[in-house]
Amino acid sequence: NAGVTQTPKFRVLKTGQSMTLLCAQDMNHEYMYWYRQDPGMGLRLIHYSVGEGTTAKGEVPDGYNVSRLKKQNFLLGLESAAPSQTSVYFCASREQGVAYNEQFFGPGTRLTVL
Amino acid sequence: GENVEQHPSTLSVQEGDSAVIKCTYSDSASNYFPWYKQELGKRPQLIIDIRSNVGEKKDQRIAVTLNKTAKHFSLHITETQPEDSAVYFCAAYYTGGGNKLTFGTGTQLKVEL
């Protein structure tokens, strides 16, 4: 049981390049989330999904797109990377339930945009 | 939407002392309050959580208290050890919030020998 995994672990992009970050979970969780973490700003939600085929905007969605074609995968895309998108990106997932339950995080992807 | 404020941003204590981190939230409908610990270079991990029908919860050296009237909750760590050094995040969730947590900005805790 690998839990939540993220690919790649590190990446360096030039301004204007595009890339996709992959998040995968093997816990059959309905909900998945993408966050970015910047010094002094905590974890800010980019986009999230409440089930296969659904996505919704979070707190800081501009410049990012997402897709949830399969329940176990949640992809985060940067179409034209900017230096302001230099950050550590975390994916998370949790089970569906009446009450909120534990959210499991992936190991993170460190992205640098030059 | 929900807004969570966390204080202090940094906290330094001597080994064996207690540490307290405080958070306030804005939406009185919030009903779930987790605390995450993030060691350097690692992922955030849940260490304790509390729901709005409970005022206090303990797990060995850590405890969380909730004051719904004042809309604040706190993390208490007793007998601190060097391995407690990490960044701690509080968060809040309410049912009408779109199935997502709102996080505080984090507290860097350093336990000195």
Walkthrough of the structure:
The complex is a heterodimer of chains A (114) and B (113). Helix content of chain A is 0%, strand content 48%. Chain A has strands at residues 4-7, 10-13, 19-25, 31-37, 43-49, 56-57, 65-67, 73-78, 87-94, 104-105, 109-113. In chain A, the strands form 2 sheets. In chain A, strands 2, 4, 5, 6, 9, 10 and 11 form a 7-stranded mixed β-sheet that branches. In chain A, strand 4 and strand 5 form a beta hairpin. The mean pLDDT of chain A is 94. Helices cover 0% and strands 58% of the residues of chain B. Chain B is built from no helices and 11 strands. The N and C termini of chain B lie far apart (41 Å). The chains are: A mainly beta (114), B mainly beta (113). Chain A binds chain B through residues 31, 33, 40-45, 48, 50, 56, 58, 90, 99-100, 102-103, 105-108, and chain B through 6, 9, 31-32, 34, 42-46, 49, 51, 89, 93, 98-101, 103-106.
Sheet-strand content of chain B, in percent, reads over 45%
SS summary, helix count of chain B: 0
> Class by helix and strand content of chain A?
mainly beta
Radius of gyration of chain B: 14 Å
Low-confidence stretches of chain B: none
- Low-pLDDT runs of 5+ residues of chain A are none
Largest sheet of chain A: 7 strands, mixed
Largest interface: A-B, 21 and 22 residues
Provide the succession of SSEs of chain A: EEEEEEEEEEE
Encode the helix/strand succession of chain B as letters. Answer: EEEEEEEEEEE
Number of strands of chain B: 11
Overall pLDDT confidence of chain B: 94
Oligomer: heterodimer
